[in-house]
Amino acid sequence: MENTFEGRLLVGATGSAAVAALPAYLGALRSALRGPITVLMTPTAAKFLPAHTAGLFADRVVTGTDASTWPRENHTTLAAGHDLTVVLPASAHTLSAVATGAAPNLLATTVLAATHPVAFFPVMTGEMWAKPAVQRNVTQLREDGYRVEDPASGPRYDVAAGAFVESPQPPPPPRFVEIVRELLS
């Protein structure tokens, strides 16, 4: 296929309601990426999107909840087994953890252990994105060599408000695939 590319991709999924859109991004990747896709879910992400649903679109899903898998699915093996990590959606909590060197979960620990490129695709409310603390964390991540995609503004359904609101969001799936292609080349 002409527009395909290769690589071993680790997709970190964090605890944001936006994780419900992850299957659309994984499906778009499937059309172009020739290589394994592993999804590493935080415990909160797995509450929003069942791991078995993510597994319909990925070669492997890791949650870190089953201790019997820890010898083969840990931060060291996950970091070493991939060429690129993308965190989508990247919550404010995850941005903060990695920016400060904290390791509160398997995803943050894996990102800290990675020697390959890591890209974050933040998703949060506009109010959260504008906070000085969040912007300091984004600046720190970029200074540390991570790629942080500035979110685009667009309509999203706000569960609390019960209405559509303008809010930061990740790029559409085709643009996401292009960014992954660029980072793997």
CA radius of gyration: 15 Å
The secondary-structure element order is EEHEEHHEHEHHEHHEEEH
In what range is the share of β-strand residues? 15-25%
How would you sum up the major sheet?
Answer: 6 strands, parallel
Give the low-confidence spans.
none
DSSP helix fraction: 25-40%
CA-based shape: globular
Count of discrete alpha- or pi-helical segments spanning 4 or more residues: 9
User: Structural class from helices and strands?
Assistant: alpha/beta
What's the short version?
With 185 residues, the chain is α/β, with parallel strands linked by helices.
Structural features, described:
The model has no long low-confidence stretch (mean pLDDT 94). The longest helix is centred in the C-terminal third of the chain and has 12 residues, at 132-143. It contains nine helices and ten strands. The two termini are 17 Å apart. The protein has a six-stranded parallel β-sheet, sandwiched between helices. A two-stranded parallel ribbon has the order 1-3. It is globular. It is α/β, with parallel strands linked by helices and 185 residues long.
Identify the notable features of this structure and list them briefly.
alpha/beta; 185 residues; single chain; globular; 38% helix; 10 strands; two-stranded parallel sheet
SSE topology:
Blueprint: E1 5-6, E2 9-13, H1 22-30, E3 33-34, E4 37-41, H2 43-48, H3 51-54, E5 60-62, H4 75-80, E6 84-90, H5 92-99, H6 106-113, E7 118-122, H7 126-130, H8 132-143, E8 147-148, E9 152-158, E10 163-169, H9 173-184
Parallel strand pairs: 1-3, 2-4, 2-6, 4-5, 6-7, 7-8
Antiparallel strand pairs: 9-10
Helix pairs in contact: 1-9, 5-8
